[in-house]
Design a protein that fits this description.
This protein is of the alpha+beta class. Helix content is 45%, strand content 15%. It contains 9 helices and 8 strands. The strands form 2 sheets. Strands 5-4-3-8-7-6 form a 6-stranded antiparallel beta sheet, with helices on both faces. It has a two-stranded antiparallel ribbon with strand order 1-2. Helix 1 crosses helix 3, helix 4 packs across helix 9 and helix 5 crosses helix 7. The chain is elongated, with a radius of gyration of 21 Å. The chain starts with 9 loop residues before the first helix and ends in an 8-residue tail after the last helix. 36% of the residues are buried.
Length: 273
């Protein structure tokens, strides 16, 4: 008996080609996929949308790149920060529909915070351009950094401060920093003000960029895993007015992200997004 020839499903083959390409590159643009696979961009978009709905890929807000869902990567060696960015992305997109100004998500490093996601591209304003991913932010001179430094436990905080302390730092300046962090914990959010004298990164940018910012820590299982901020041009609103209008939405977003991170780290599935 002759073996009957079975045809393959060409559309499925193409979809798998797209998935394998995304997994191989770990982050890829639509144009790069178009060049690599020689498929029309409209076709690729439909495939990526389908793969996204099946939980196989996700699109980063910060630059539009497509990334593999972390659960689909064999021998997953992804850093926790990538997991946090993936989890936070849809919540940050939802936040962009509730508030007038953009946000960044940042994760802690030894002596700085690093931007890992931003919804800035969803806003059509030059004044709303934040990021890109990978930018290093000061622990001391940005709301983003202060929010984390205020929320972490004492041993971690002391280690970070020791790394940042200038050799000629006065006792008064260190006392001022601790007072800023204490006030941040008491009111539940961080701001850029008051300025601090230590010459840490971002200081000159904060002094001249004409922006204001507030940030809150993202807590998962009682510990901060990152921070999320809100940034606006100083000329477009006073701190009090913006905070009164948007602080609750920012805090709710941080709580939702923290809950989702905790659920996933425990091996569960979060259905609240």
């Amino acid at each position: 008996m002759l073996e009957r020839k079975v045809k393959t499903v060409r559309a499925l083959e193409r979809g798998l080609d797209v998935l394998l390409e995304v997994q191989a590159r770990r982050a890829v643009s639509l144009h790069e996929l178009h060049q690599a696979l020689a498929l029309p961009k409209a076709t690729l978009l439909r495939m990526l949308l389908t793969l996204g709905r099946k939980g196989l890929v996700w699109q980063r807000l910060a630059d539009g790149a497509y990334l593999p869902h972390l659960g689909t990567i064999a021998h997953n060696a992804a850093a926790p920060v990538e997991q946090i960015a993936q989890i936070a992305s849809p919540y940050m997109k939802a936040l962009s529909t509730k508030v007038a100004w953009p946000s960044v998500l940042a994760a802690p490093r030894l002596d700085h915070m690093e931007i890992v996601e931003t919804n800035s591209p969803l806003f059509r304003l030059d004044s709303a351009t934040l990021g890109p991913v990978g930018v290093k932010l000061s622990y001391i001179h940005t709301a983003t950094g202060r929010a984390y430094l205020a929320a972490c436990d004492e041993s971690e905080r002391e280690a970070i401060i020791a790394r940042l302390r200038p050799k000629d730092a006065s006792q008064g300046s260190e006392d001022d920093l601790r007072a800023i962090l204490r006030e941040t914990r008491e009111r539940g959010y961080a701001a850029r003000e008051p300025l601090h004298p230590w010459p840490d990164r971002s200081k000159q940018l904060v002094l001249r960029d004409g922006r204001r910012s507030m940030a809150v820590a993202i807590m998962a299982r009682g510990s901060p895993v990152g921070t999320i901020n809100l940034t606006w041009p100083a000329k477009r609103g006073t701190d009090e007015a913006v905070m009164l209008r948007h602080l609750e939405a920012l805090q709710q977003t941080a709580r939702a992200i923290g809950h989702a991170v905790a659920v996933q780290s425990a091996g569960g599935t979060d259905h609240s997004s």
